[in-house]
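I hope you will forgive my troubling you with a question about protein structure. Here, with my thanks, is the record as I have it:
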Amino acid sequence: FSVSTLGPQRREAGTPPPDVDFRADLTGAYNEFIPVSGSDAGKDAMADQRNFAGDLGLSLGIMPQRTWSGRLHAGIGRSMMPTNEADTAASYNRLRPSAGAEVIWTPGGGMLDWRLGYEFNGNFFEAGDFSELNRLDNYIITRGRWRFFPRTAMLYDMKAGFIIYPDQSAKTNSYPLRSRLGVNGLITPSFAVLAMAGWGSSFYAGEQEDFDSLLGQLEVKWYLTPVPGGDLMQVTASLSSIAAGFIRDFDDSYIGTYLERDRGYLKFSYLFGGVFLLVAEGGAGAVVFPAIAPSANYAGQGGWTDVAVDGSLLAEYRIHDMWGINTTLKYMGYFSDTSLTFAGAGAADQLQYQRFEAFLGARWFM
């Protein structure tokens, strides 16, 4: 469920922007796990993990569309995820609070905009077995956009993080830093290119192996219908397009220190006759782990590389201007020959898995 003040597309022409704008989003999902193999006891344990997930998000804009403006946001979410072993006492269910604020400077009628903000994300596992992995993520973020041609903009972003683990028995704190510079623009009324490149470092506390390498993204996109007015800021989700790209980034990992992601992807979006929307995306790439030193959880392990494959399909039929029904199908395949040995136990954690998800829903545009 979403509710918001009227956006600029729905306000009458000439109407000045409001002093504040507001948006609230509430989502819920019921998770049913359907075992297809294993012992009867194992199937029952997996099925017993059925539960609810959800998110609540609030956002408040202050003096929007002015030279100086600001935005506040806060939210709380609950994620559902079983372990690969279907152990009901040790699921990966977690609570995810978030909050943030930013100041926005937009001089010169929108040719330049610059943002400076703070963002907090928490991750708290419900199972006591994983409480040592509870984390607090704090980020200082700045990003800017300078439109030096009518259809082209220079981009910059920087993100300085403070990742804190209150219980440092399994993980140590880190202070990741990312900085990227790039360009986003239309080469023709239908062909766009996004190119970003920069550097990232993880900066782990203590004697830990750090990520310290290039970051980047390259995407080429073909709009099947020309972009209205040649302005990429006016692009909406209903504008049909085909895109291909590649992203290189890193993230903090619950296993060892960091993981590096190198992912190529394809996207396709098409609105048929203004009533049927189809969005498909697929990606594949390498997930690279550095060597793991012996810890309270795992025995030592040399560095290794896994392969991740993902795909999603969204289809929505808009029965009426106010009504739509939709379905979403998702696949995640994680292919790994690595088994991590638990410290002092002799048992192993096999990393490979496959996950299928299906959702059915409806939308009512009030």
